[in-house]
Amino acid sequence: MFIALSTFTIANDMAPAVKEAFVNRPGLVEGAPGFIRLQVISPTDNPQEIWLITQWTDEESYKVWHRSHLYHASHSGIPKGLKLVPRSAKVRFFEHICE
Q1: Model's pTM, two decimal places?
Q2: Domain extents for the chain?
Q3: Which of 1, 10, 12, 46 is the most buried (most CB within 10 A)?
């Protein structure tokens, strides 16, 4: 299994709108080949921070999704006016070892 963790921190008090956008997202990733699961979480000690954890069968499936037009379309619900803390957006990749 391949895991991608994307994190970012909201700079302008739009966390509630961003979280609502994730709740109401179009769900385009669910149909991507190799997709297993998506979790959107926020640390209780910093509710302006958002973490997206996606699980894939393999790295290539993630890369194909990330380059796809559906990936870009999946971001269409981002609330207008959203500002992020500079350099807070990060993506890290993980190898799943065991449960």
Answers
A1: 0.88
A2: 2-95
A3: 10
